[in-house]
Amino acid sequence: MSMEKHYFITSEFMYMLGHYDRYGKLCTQIIETTRTFLVDMSPIEILDLSISAFGFDLRGAIAASKKLLGDIHMCPIKVNPIYQIVLFPTKSLNHQDTIWFNPDHIERTTSIFRKTAFLLSNGDTLILPAKLSSFNSKLQTADQYNKMTTGLPGSHFTLMLDPSKKPVKKNESTRNRRN
Question: How far is the CA of 16 from the CAs of 6, 38, 158, in angstroms?
Answer without folding.
Answer: 14, 9, 31
